[in-house]
Amino acid sequence: MFKRNYKGRIFFGILAFLILIGILGTPIASLPYYVMEPGSAEDVAPFVKVDEKPAKHGEGTFYLTTVGVGKATVLDWVWAQYSHELELIPEKEMLINVKNDEEYQRQQKENMLESQNAALIAAFKEAKKPMKVEYLGVEVFSVRKENGFQVGDLITAIDGQPILRKEDLFAYLEKKKIGDRVKVKFQRTNTKDPIEKEIVLADVAEPQEGQKRAGLGIYPLTREKVSTTPSIKIEAGEIGGPSAGLMFTLTVYDQLTEGDLTHSMKIAGTGTMNSEGKVGQIGGIQYKVRAADKKGAEIFFAPKDTQPTDENEKIALQAAKEIKTKMKIVPVATFQEALQYLQSQEKSSQKAS
């Protein structure tokens, strides 16, 4: 039976109309959405700079995977109605804990730095190599409620108690009530002497929390310095966000230890990393699966679903099924699980030979 393609005609009619609007210069209101689509799979090794000659390793490759993210245009909105490789995300869901796109981009850079430090710590611990972590204090990333703080202020103590990590800050404040007064010691950029200021604690709870919570009215970041032997730096260029943590950790460990960890395979993956080696959930994993498959990866490490709200593992497996890839999805909850899986591949190849 022959059917007229009304959807196609509607699509091209809308497209022609939008092109006409662009030509005439008629203003179009910006859309309150971000667009997410498959990005790329990048060889991690060039991002990891080792002062000493790295340990010999195999011919395989570790790939970090990215998603393309940007402000949505009207054409993006139209195309998203017809494409499975493009998704519109409401602005309010993307800009969690940030005020605008500029702050979001800055947050992504800070998250990348945090993931790099965690990767170094986790990899050096597992490889049993010399490593030292110095916690410098809690930096004010952004101000949520006016309280005398400025972006970049480095908090080092509250009421005489050392506050060197954001976990220290949260632990101290959870015992306090809204309206309590605390004396905060912090260092301000271009100021020689520390500043002490009395702050009245405000309600800083997000609407979804369902109950009030006392806080300073800032978004905090732990500022730390990681020193290692050999010295290793991770420089990811314009790539932002925390989701490359697992792949950075595997690559650093591979550089520190002898043996062929990749077994000459193309290994892609994603997942945040903390200093204890725990792999965390990320966004847009379905697009990362597609990017890895296009690169020819044979293995894709995905964060394992361990909590009721987790869904990375489920989405990754579904995405792999949809594109009919031969790439194996391997869910992991820790760096150690990923490492054990790769080491088991070595034993399997030895048995096969």
Task: Please specify the SSE layout and strand pairing.
Elements: H1 6-24, E1 33-43, E2 48-50, E3 61-71, H2 74-80, E4 87-90, H3 91-94, H4 101-127, E5 131-143, E6 154-158, E7 161-162, H5 166-173, E8 181-187, E9 195-200, E10 202-203, E11 214-215, E12 218-228, E13 232-234, H6 245-256, E14 266-269, E15 272-273, E16 279-280, H7 285-295, E17 299-303, H8 312-323, E18 328-332, H9 335-352
Parallel strand pairs: 3-14, 14-17, 17-18
Antiparallel strand pairs: 1-3, 1-4, 2-13, 5-6, 5-12, 6-7, 6-8, 8-9, 10-11, 15-16
List keywords for this structure.
six-stranded mixed sheet, six-stranded antiparallel sheet, Ribosomal Protein S5, domain 2, 353 residues, Pdz3 Domain, globular, 33% helix, 9 helices, single chain, alpha+beta
